[in-house]
Design a protein that fits this description.
- The protein is of the alpha/beta class and 450 residues long.
- It is 30% helix and 24% strand.
- It contains twelve helices and 21 strands.
- It is globular, with a radius of gyration of 24 Å.
Length: 450
């Protein structure tokens, strides 16, 4: 008889957990997954996918505005309820696909709450199951800080299921989620104010991305207010009144907080089992995603390393190779590309200018701003920004940054170049696709700074 019920027991059927489980099963492991909510985790249900669908919806308003320059006129009407219903239908379809993926891989799915009892035992709704390895892949959850009236605020989770589009919205926070939802609500017709307690949002991104996006959002009419926060919220009938830290007051129907996410580790029994957690609840892991207990591993958002779905998937692949393919693999966090689906989009890969200088590189900066061809007829005052950070000594491109339409699509290709160690000379010798915005990355010749 086998010593354990399963070779791998995964807690959490999000992107990372499903990938780790499916690939481990393909290597011959006997695998089970426990999930207490919908399959697919945050990304599928209340994250990347529904967010991108809402971003698509929000862009139609601008398209209607831009149409006359191209000879089109249309009548405009937006139905929030229909959008949400169609979004929900698509999410249900994806849930079914995740279920089929696990079934086809031979992975046992247990729907219920799982807790770690000891290094080799989990309990799913009270039923004890043993496993050689336990994988924690429970993701993260949005949080709202406690202050007077904070119970009246919503998070991105609730924003995806609002019964109607609010006329006035306050978005608090300056990360991905904050700028994306500010663009969504504004694009769909809500009067939108975004608050951020710092000088400029998107902390950690290249400063030219941060400044360019702020300029473009203000042009569109988003009310950006920096160095401000909410001190209290009061409810009056169907409306809310927010008192800000400078004493001013804002009225809104909804106030969305996007100020942080915490690991979903409470109620998992990890600390009782001897697994060390950080102060924020994240699981402490080594380079191979192993916790402080040899048989317990963790990947994805709950480790607070890099909260991106493709990173969780890569960590899941590495873990499966390490445990069941005799191929110890460390996840790579080098040159991870990312996009912010703001309006307009941001795309980035590699080092920011500040990071490169901070690491002691002598660098050249190439920067270009221009009006996209489309807007020569639409009349819209929009500028695309592109930037390269180049090491003077080796001529290697250290970072690529962009604000403009399809930034994520463009930067994905540049990430391959950076991971291959491409130089500025190799960028220069690449023939551009004309007319396209992307060609600007291979035609920038004049240094903006050194």
């Amino acid at each position: 008889m086998a010593q354990y019920d399963y070779d791998l027991f995964t807690i959490g059927a999000g992107s990372g957990g499903v990938r780790a489980s499916r690939i481990s099963a393909s290597f011959g492991a006997k695998v089970a997954v426990a999930e207490e909510r919908d399959l697919g985790g945050t990304c599928v249900n209340v994250g990347c996918i529904p967010k991108k669908l809402l971003v698509y919806a929000s862009h139609y308003g601008e398209d209607f505005d831009d149409m006359p320059g191209f000879g089109w006129t249309v009548e405009r009407h937006f139905d929030w309820a229909k959008l949400i219903a169609n979004k929900n239908k698509e999410i249900s379809r994806l849930n079914g696909i995740y279920r089929k993926i696990l079934a086809d891989a031979g992975v046992t799915l247990m729907e219920g709450h799982a807790e770690v009892v000891d290094p080799h035992t989990v309990a799913v709704d009270g039923k004890r199951i043993t496993a050689k390895y336990i994988l924690v892949a429970v993701g993260s959850w949005p949080s709202v800080p406690k202050f007077p009236g904070s119970e009246h605020a919503i998070t991105s989770n609730e924003a995806f299921y609002l019964p109607s589009l609010p006329e006035r919205v306050i978005v608090v926070g300056g990360g991905y989620i904050g700028v994306e939802f500010a663009g969504i609500f504004h694009g769909l017709g809500a009067r939108t104010t975004q608050l951020y307690r710092g000088d400029l949002f998107l902390r950690g991104f290249d400063d030219d991305i941060r400044k360019s996006l702020a300029d473009e959002m203000r042009k569109r009419g988003v009310d950006l207010r920096f160095n401000l926060d909410i001190s209290k919220i009061e409810k009056h009938g169907d409306g809310l009144t927010a008192t800000l830290t400078d004493g001013s007051v804002l009225d809104a129907e909804q106030i969305l907080y996007a100020t942080g996410r915490g690991s979903k580790t409470p109620d998992l029994g990890l600390e009782k089992a001897g697994v060390k957690l950080k102060a924020n609840g994240a699981v402490v892991v080594d380079e191979y995603s192993k916790s402080t207990i040899d048989s317990v591993y963790a990947i994805g958002d709950c480790t607070d390393r890099m909260m991106l779905t493709p990173v969780a998937i890569a960590e899941g692949m590495a873990l499966a190779n390490t445990l069941f393919n005799d191929k110890p693999t460390k996840p790579s966090y080098l040159n991870v590309p990312t996009a912010v689906f703001s309006t307009p989009n941001c795309g980035t890969v590699g080092l920011t200018e500040a990071e490169a200088r901070g690491r002691g590189y002598e660098i050249d900066i190439y920067r270009s701003t221009f009006k996209p061809l489309r807007h020569t007829l639409s009349g819209r005052d929009e500028r695309t920004m592109m930037k390269l950070v180049v090491d003077q000594a080796s001529d290697k491109v250290l970072g690529c940054h962009m604000v403009g339409p399809d930034a994520g699509e463009i930067v994905q290709g540049l990430a391959i170049a950076l991971n291959c160690g491409a130089t500025k000379a190799q960028f220069d010798m690449t023939i551009g696709i004309h007319p396209s915005a992307a060609e600007e990355f291979v035609t920038m010749r004049s240094k903006a700074a050194s």
